[in-house]
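input
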Amino acid sequence: MRRRGGGGSAPRLPLLLLALAVAVAACWAGRADGHGAHPLSRISIHRARVALDASAAVRASPDLLGSRGEDTAWVTVEFKIPRASDGDWIGVFSPSNFNASTCPGSHGSGPGPAICSAPIKYQFANYSSAYNKSGKGALRFQLINQRQDFSLALFTGGLSNPTLVAVSNRIAFANPKAPVYPRLALGKTWNEMTVTWTSGYGTSEAHPFVQWGMKGSSPVHAPADTVTFGRESLCGEPARSVGWRDPGFIHTAFLKNLSPEKEYYYRIGHMLHDGKVIWGKPKSFRAPPYPGQKSLQRVVIFGDMGKDERDGSNEYQNYQPASLNTTDALIRDLDNTDMVFHIGDISYANGYLSQWDQFTQQVEPITSRVPYMLASGNHERDFPNSGSLYNGTDSGGECGVPAEAMYYAPTEKRDNYWYAMDYGMFRFCVADSEHDWREGTEQYRFLDRCLGSVDRARQPWLVFIAHRVLGYSSGFFYGYDGAFAEPMARRSLEGLWRRHRVDVAFYGHVHQYERTCPVYQERCVPDGRGTVHVVVGGGGSHLSNFTAVAPPWSVYREMDYGFGKLTASDARSLQFEYRRSSDGKVYDSFTLHRD
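output
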């Protein structure tokens, strides 16, 4: 994959508006209240010293993980140290050899760092009761298959001045290269499903494919394309330095000519040169409806979920405190869900690439059964001089590369993350808010075509999606100057929504829930003459405040975690529900009607 930028720059907003946009982005990232710092960024690993202490020890068990084909395993870590303190912590490193010999490049005349890769996760040693008194403790970590072995290390000195005093034995999964974490997405035609997964097998070692078919029929094999990317494909720190971890190989197969709404079974696999096949777990999905098909169609939409750790690692409860609640709520309702849109700020890896594997594992129960469609957000794309519309650093130097490799989207160009999608009675037009969307741009012309080319007699429900709020939000920092959206957004796009009669527009970015009336030019209008704008950015990351007074167009506001769900069964009505992640219950709803 090519590095972003270098071939010209995107048109820039006027200086004052650009400064405001960048300030707003920083506020949404949570930097004002301290929540925006990635947990792994708090570790000054480049300053770490190595001072191994013969009287300190770390032991991890079991040594062998996944002996029955499991992709996750719980590990018990026992440790001791002569003088315990509150700043002691246990880090999980992968690969297990993380000393200076693995640092890239030359360090010149200086000695260079002793450690140059961040841990995958960590816990403070005093999470183990009585550690401070006895200097002995035990913790449990949940590890996932990430293509490499692991070791666990005991550090003193806290996160800002870490000193390595002991390293555990090496532990590993039985087959670290195994194909894992399948991810479904719709292809570029309505009757195509794509399957993406990750493995440690390059094409020189094994042939990747998907075995698939309808129940009762003979299965067929679909070959898979394979991509990867190197450190040089990324555009900044920490992704190119302490956050770098080899992504392995990402494979995508295209299952074509599906029969509408039929159940299909599939397995990902790799055929080795000796003819042996390494299989993934058997899965199934239901094919999408054809454009215009009248049937029950249910679509979940949310943004800004990120990931969390079920073992309590990384202090993630202060970063994406409700990510697991949302994930688990979606899994519980999966039998009543046909498709999911995660509309930006996906994993919040922020340049720590190990976190992408952990996110794909967290959502695998969802992505392996229903299409999981993405929109691009600031935490995937933004970095200075990389071609993004905004010059923030929220991607941590990723510049969209991991997101675009790990998850398929039916875009025409990989880095232009906008696309159209037909699903039964729906037409979805997905914008890329991190690239220029103003009138006269390539993306504006695409949105005009996408919104204007649908046959509303067959597909009555027209939905616009973007990560940043390009319509209406009374989030505090959007409302601070009275704009209530990204600068210039409505001036550029509201005419399109009105001309093409967009029913609903969805956004993330603001970590809360809000719904407007059908609105045009800041005034509520009758159904069919305006667009309902919905912010569903409460997927998991820390919550954002509202303005003290709700604007007249704001119908419902809630500062809580949740997700939205669209349900259509005919061309006459479209139902929307907002559900809280904590209990899955409906707390707001509306219905649009058509003659």
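quick obs: Residues 1-34 have pLDDT under 50 and may be disordered.
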